[in-house]
Amino acid sequence: MRTPVVHHALRRRRARRLRALWTGGELLVTVGVVLLLLVVHQLWWTNREARQGAERKVQALEREWGAPEASSSAGGSVSTPAAGSTGVASPSGVRKQGRTAVSGPVRPGPSQAYAVLVIPRLSLRAPVAEDVSKADVLNKGYVGHYPGTAQPGQAGNFALAGHRNTHGEPFRYLNRLRRGDSFTVETRSATYTYVVGQVLPRTSPVDGGVIAPVPRSRVDPSYGYDRPGYYLTLTTCTPEFTSRYRLVVWGVLASARPR
Question: Which helix (H) or strand (E) covers residue 51, if one does?
Fold first, then answer.
């Protein structure tokens, strides 16, 4: 009778391979769960927390001002100021229509929320804070004001930035704005209504011309304005979930109403 030969070394090698495969599988599952949790945190939790915080800040500002205004007031029809071939409202154009800008002394401190941006088409009400710091402003779901640019209602360019994805993503659907859409900026002293004049679908993150006092893209000079006026610039990242380019929306002051 033939005695079977047991290859113990072969069995040990197979056992080691199985343990290695099992350990590798466990590691992959663990990494997958961690990545899933990170995605949930970024796409859901940060949005939830930032949106709630931003809404509380809007309510706090309105209580502080003492006269909250309904967001629907921003959706009414407005007449566009006198405009030239570039669709720009000059200071004289605003005065001729009896809508002189109400621009009191606005000197917010760093990261201080001091205004509310209302965009009816996007169902958006977001606090505006000084600076564009991610940690102190943008990641809270706020819209940030570029330091050194004009303030609401002032001649020049009131330039703002906001997240398009995560952390409240106030500018998630900024690409839906079209020429002629109106939106407002509410402050302690006045409410300013702007009308969208131009949309720059894509430009470089370092295209500083878009937030200049007379905004004009340095990457594509066919977009922008060529004379002084009362402007508001909205900027965010594009395409979604990247920061490779910037989407820019320009508005022109249409009216100013004291609170």
Answer: helix 46-65
* Residue 188 appears among annotated catalytic residues: no
* Pick from 51, 216, 185: nearest CA to 108: 185
| Helix or strand holding residue 16 (H, E) | helix 8-40
Residue 70 CA to residue 56 CA, distance in Å, equals 16
Domain 43-258: give its CATH superfamily. Sortase (2.40.260.10)
The structure tokens listed for 155 are 């001649």
The CA-atom distances, in angstroms, between 99 and each of 29, 85, 233 are 63, 21, 20
237 counts as catalytic: yes
- The predicted-structure confidence for 213-244, as pLDDT tens digits, reads as follows 999 999 999 999 999 999 999 999 999 999 99
176 is catalytic: no
Is residue 146 within 8 Å of 155, Cβ to Cβ?
A: no
pLDDT digits (tens, 9 = 90+) for 112-169: 999 999 999 999 999 999 999 999 999 999 999 999 999 999 999 999 999 999 999 9
User: pTM, whole model, 2 decimals?
Assistant: 0.75
- Residue among 145, 163, 164, 172 flagged as catalytic: 163
Q: Where are the domains of the chain?
A: 43-258
